[in-house]
Amino acid sequence: MSGGYTRLTVQGAARKADVVLPDDEPVAALLPPLLDLLAEDRSGSGRPVTLTTLLGQQVDLTRTLAEQELAQGTLLRVVRVDQAPPPPEVADVTDVVAEALAARPDRWRPVWGLAATAGVAAVAGWLAGAALDPGAGALAAALTTLLATALARLHRTGPAWVLAAAAAGGALALAPALDLPLPTALAAWGMLGLIAALVGGLGAGRVSAGLGGATAVLLAGLVPVLEPMATERGALAAAGVLAVLLLGVLPGLAMTASGLNGLDDRAVEGRRPGRRRVLHAVDETYRALTWATVAAAGVVAVTGWLLVRGDLIWSTVLGGVLGLLVLLRARVLPLAPQRLALIAAGVAVAVGWALTREPEAVLIGAGVVLLVAAVISGLRATGPLAARLRRLASVVELLAVLATVPLLLAMLGVFGDLVGTF
């Protein structure tokens, strides 16, 4: 209750009463009328009484109810002091500490040890790739990848991923030295995708790793295929646009690759699959979507970075549109790694644009971004407002997708050819 009173339930030997007592009076001053109310025997002066909670905690008679912070509705028992139960003791501190440690998500686990070992192997592979000549380094990376694939086929996943990390480190070191018909960053991304597809997809049998690796390889390999028919910028633009468009169909591809769509068809036909199989298919679907999203986001980051740093206005605008599209697409993906990958790709495009602009323009752009970020971080949109914002984002995304078509045609030189023809 308010106004300096506390409602308590006091139980004696024969009676029980709900009372409202002042908070600022010592409990000892309130005890005699309470005993009279409950018709307690007060003749045994040599055996004083006290009040205890259900847990056996004794109420301090010299202090007030407010000082002891007794909650509203607390049940107190009237007992003789010599018959009062002992107060509770917490004797499982060690157990609580152990349980708390086991429940922490940042507790050291074997997977962290494997990740640390793989990181060391990647650094070693990078050093070896930098020390060898390109031909020998490429051969060593290829043999390491094949060995990792074989180990994964034998279910030796730990050594397989360590060797795959070493091959990836070597590929990153070799990418600048190899004379490949595509930008260095895109070549490195494609080689990482190839390693993931071989070791994770072909070796370990993970559909998710296979889909993600194949996505990176196909998008990166599109550039040297298209470059003879267009300029390098045009090929980069085509790869970036395809990567953004692919983000829209990745959920369906992931469900098909993991077999989830097939299970749904079987359920419709009356052949219900087991729960464990369905859960495995759902988990593999999310994994496949994450791998493929990261692969496509990497391609958008590289192509968008290079496009916004180009000299042509078409190149800059198309790169900006690609960055905007991945940021808008991030809002519809369910898992944090997927969204973070797309946000990182959009930020990479923005940074690439900023590095080619005048400091004044960069300061203005950075100020606007900081202001928008601060507003968004403190915004708690209501249901109707959130719905309107989602519709607005969908409209902007549709317009941006439509804008990629004429921008891509301009990058491929179609408009110039038309002007020359007519």
TrEMBL record:
InterPro entries: EccD_transm (IPR044049), YukD-like (IPR024962). This is EccD-like transmembrane domain-containing protein. It comes from Cellulomonas denverensis. Signal peptide: none annotated. It comes from the Bacteria. Keywords: Membrane, Transmembrane, Transmembrane helix. Residues 113-418 form the EccD-like transmembrane domain. The chain crosses the membrane at residues 111-129, 135-154, 161-178, 184-202, 209-226, 238-263, 284-306, 312-328, 340-356, 362-383, 395-416. Pfam families: EccD, YukD.
